[in-house]
Write a structure and sequence with these properties.
The protein is of the alpha/beta class. It has one domain: Carbon-nitrogen hydrolase (Nitrilase/N-carbamoyl-D-aminoacid amidohydrolase, 4-Layer Sandwich). About 30% of the residues lie in helices and about 25% in strands. It has a 6-stranded mixed sheet. The chain has a 6-stranded mixed sheet with strand order 6-7-8-9-10-11, covered by helices on one side. Helix 1 runs parallel beside helix 4. The termini are far apart.
């Protein structure tokens, strides 16, 4: 039976990159037991939605090859023998624009660029496009302990095409790093979208979200039946949870929506 133990970190990362790095490492070390993969939320490096000034965001951003922020997590990954999914705000060659990027740091200390956020949060009176340039391609699937894994960031949850693409490409797990902003019924929206993306694709969905004055919290795990298995509520916490590959196989046997969808679309496209 293939299984993956995932650790989810939920916290209020309202400080500078160094302060946030120290906080993340402290919380993870305090709670770590056996996780194969540890996921940090969006904006855990720093929060550009508060700064709003593109040039200030660019000043705080780093380049992956010389990043002190990433170097700290490389050391942590090597010491724990676990992989980490880190949200990273990276400089581009065209200031003041940066990218909202997911970096996978392997247990061997490799820092892999796996995804840059495609759908920018230009909604609810925010404009990520003022300081981010969007990613242009979905992530390639990465196999982690037998789980083909895709990656998404926050606002991407509202675009089901991305998640269906991952699932039809073979994904069993999709990691979503989030900084889900508070607002009327926003917790319910997050829960509904995450449940829908997991159910309609019969995949595990892991959401690592920020908490605090600005964000909703409610990080957790949604299983391939579409049910929430884990809810971190509104507290700062680090929790580990086991995912089972056989649960995906069971769900896809009982609810064969992926196969049915692919068959229907193949027929339609042939016409």
């Amino acid at each position: 039976m293939s299984e993956l133990v995932v650790g989810i970190l939920q916290a209020d990362f309202s400080g500078t990159p160094q302060v946030n790095l120290d906080k993340a490492i402290s919380l993870i070390k305090r709670g770590y037991r056996e996780a194969d993969l540890i996921v940090l939320p969006e904006y855990s490096m720093f929060n550009p939605l508060v700064l709003r000034e593109p040039r200030r965001v660019y000043e705080l951003a780093e380049e992956p090859a010389t990043s002190k922020y990433l170097a700290g997590f490389v050391k942590l990954a090597e010491s724990l023998g676990a992989s980490l999914v880190v949200h990273f705000i990276e400089k581009t060659p065209t200031p003041p624009y940066t990218r909202s990027t997911t970096i996978l740091i392997t247990s061997r200390g490799e820092a892999l660029h796996v995804y840059s956020k495609m759908h920018l949060f230009d909604a609810y009176n925010y404009r990520e496009s003022d300081f981010f340039t969007p990613g242009t391609t979905p992530s390639k699937l990465v196999v982690i302990e037998g789980f083909e894994t895709g990656f998404a960031v926050c606002y991407d949850l509202r675009f089901p095409e991305l998640f269906r693409l991952y699932a039809t490409s073979g994904a069993k797990l999709i990691i979503v790093q989030a900084g889900w902003v508070r607002g009327p019924l926003k917790e319910e929206v997050l829960d509904t979208l995450a449940s829908s993306r997991s159910h309609e694709n019969t995949v595990y969905l892991v959401v690592a979200n920020q908490v605090g004055e600005m964000f909703t919290g409610r990080s957790g795990v949604f299983n391939p039946w579409g049910y929430r298995e884990l809810d971190l509520g509104h507290r700062e916490d680090y929790i580990e949870h086991k995912l089972l590959l056989e649960e995906i196989e069971k769900a896809r046997s009982v609810i064969p929506v992926l196969r049915q969808s692919m068959e229907r679309w193949e027929i339609k496209l042939k016409k």
